[in-house]
TrEMBL record:
GO terms for molecular function: iron ion binding; iron-sulfur cluster binding. It comes from the Bacteria. This is SUF system NifU family Fe-S cluster assembly protein. Transmembrane segments: none annotated. Belongs to the NifU family. InterPro entries: NIF_FeS_clus_asmbl_NifU_N (IPR002871). One of its GO terms (biological process) is iron-sulfur cluster assembly. Pfam families: NifU_N (PF01592). Residues 7-95 form the NIF system FeS cluster assembly NifU N-terminal domain.
Length: 147
């Protein structure tokens, strides 16, 4: 199986059967992200305690890329510190913008690497980064206004 096929399978699985698409009853913050160019709309719900992202989930509608990207992101940030989660968001956005291409620097993005080729599809970039920008904005607001 070619690497592109593996990536396609990862994205398909996360968009068809997202593990983290539900309301989070213990959420300490929620932030809506909207992509007006294609209609993707998510609400990211986070349980942030003691500087850690204890849990996260999302609701909303969108294309396969936005839904898969959001689900993968949540998998990556659960149990991470606010700083680690924001660093992952920074790396992911830089990868999609083509600013970081070094495999070693990107390896902690794990399954999110499946979205790497979106950088070659300008119309889909906003779909891929919607959740990551929403996450960064939510974590900035959640006790970290200086960042």
């Amino acid at each position: 199986m070619a690497l592109d096929d593996v990536y396609t399978e990862v994205l398909g699985e996360h968009s068809r059967n997202p593990d983290h698409k539900h309301h989070l009853s213990c959420a300490t913050c929620a932030l809506k992200g909207h992509n007006p160019s294609c209609g993707d709309e998510i609400t990211l719900e986070l349980q942030v305690e003691g500087g850690m992202v204890k849990d996260a989930s999302f609701t909303g509608v969108g294309c396969a890329i936005s839904q898969a990207s959001t689900d993968i992101m949540i998998e990556l940030i659960r149990g991470k510190s606010i700083e680690e989660a924001r660093d992952l968001a920074r790396k992911f956005i830089a990868m999609i913008k083509g600013e970081i291409t070094d495999d070693e620097e990107l390896e902690d993005l794990d399954e999110a690497l499946a979205l790497r080729n979106v950088s070659h599809m300008p119309a889909r970039v906003k779909c891929a980064v919607l959740a990551w920008h929403t996450l960064d904005d939510a974590l900035k607001k959640d006790g970290n206004p200086e960042k």
